[in-house]
Amino acid sequence: MKKIFLLFVLAAFTLNAFSQNIFSLFGKANTFFDLFAAGKFEEAHGYFSEEGKTKVTAENLKQFWTGLQNRLGKVKAIDATGSKNQGEFYAVTVSGEFEHDTQDFVLVFDKSEKLVGMHLPPKAVTYRSPGYADSTLYKEKSTYIQTPGHQLAAIITVPKDGNSFPVVVLVHGSGPNDMDETIGPNKPFKDIAAGLAANGIASVRYVKRTLLYPAEFGKAFTVKEEVLDDALQAIALAKTIEGADLKNIYVLGHSLGGMLAPRIATLVPDLKGIILAAAPARKLTDLIIEQNKYMVAQSKDTSAVLQKSLADAITEIEKTRLTKLEKMKPDSLLLGLPASYWVDLNNYNQVETAKKLKQRIFVIQGGYDFQVTEADYNLWKEALTGNNVTFKLYPDFNHLFSQQEEKGDVVQYQKPANVEQRAIEDLSNWIKGL
């Protein structure tokens, strides 16, 4: 799901080149972090340009450094190690060694050698295949799903042995996503496809339209264009797979995909069932507010400045509750999404829609999920009853259904961790009716 918090603003790069005194910039970068280590945040703040100072305060710097040391331990060594010309700006990479881990930083300077931005680049950690992904048990085929004006790469994964097998269509969460739903070094859809296939169940996964056609989403749109049209085509593709049991086609929707799975099921009444994986039962607005409150609480910062920032953010988020456009233009942006999107989603009640379905439903949820929480799982459980609904809560799983030691935050997604085998087994058994 989308998050509305921001620590540092990185200025946009332009195309005009300029020469820069690299040694001077390296010295400034090193001194900047020396001031951090000495707790001299007001002096460090002086390194920013006038515009930069309006976006980052000395208190922000203190909060950032305190949070970093709480996570990584005290700094042992920190030095500028690289540089890159970025049009009218210059990016200096600074490598830090801390007690418990390493962390790189990128400082962006303007022509006057003033800081205009800073960010932490993600570590280059690669995906690792789970132990249950036995490639001798399945095969994969590359193909496409197509709608007018769109062609999206897809992969069909099928068990090598057997016939008349179930097929699961995997539907992504919000935002641009590849076919594996890659987040950092993690690929939950790739894990699920391999795990299901090893258990005799086929799957279809595909690139989300927002990744390949981003220009189309700069105007008015709804979840029809973002999710539904392509999900329907993926289901149609699933029905063409040789050996597929056409009476056993399922949709697994993750996060936003899970929220929309009941809507998909109403459009494809011959689906056998849907899987709601970390699916919001509440409005998207409620989740975004909850996420922001959680991140502020995680920071353990009780300052009036941060509390005011949170209150201001919530005021802006509340504006997304509209259910009618009235005088507002459909492409008017609210939290980066057009008004048409919010109206469509706010007029959709996923819980009430699910209650009317005759298909099988499996609701799965991680207890350590901070994006879609156990509160949503409980709402599903309270609303859905009957022999066609199954529930499974994994207390130690996060939003990606990997096992964790704590609830954590977005940093957790930068560490490799596969979808747990327990979830794969439960999904497989439920689909097979075991």
Structure in a nutshell:
The protein has 14 helices and 14 strands.
Task: Please provide a written account of the structure.
The protein has 434 residues and is of the alpha/beta class. The chain folds into 2 domains: 98 residues, Nuclear Transport Factor 2, Chain: A, CATH 3.10.450.590; 264 residues, 3-Layer(aba) Sandwich (Rossmann fold). Helix content is 35%, strand content 23%. It contains 14 helices and 14 strands. The longest helix has 16 residues. The chain starts with 21 loop residues before the first helix and ends with a helix. The relative contact order is 0.11. The N terminus is likely disordered.
Key terms:
Nuclear Transport Factor 2, Chain: A, alpha/beta, four-stranded antiparallel sheet, 434 residues, Rossmann fold
The best one-word shape is: globular
Question: Could you tell me the radius of gyration in angstroms?
Answer: 24 Å
Tell me the strand order in the biggest sheet.
5-6-8-7-9-10-13-14
**Secondary-structure element string:** HHHHEEEEEEEHEHHEHEHHEEHHEHEH
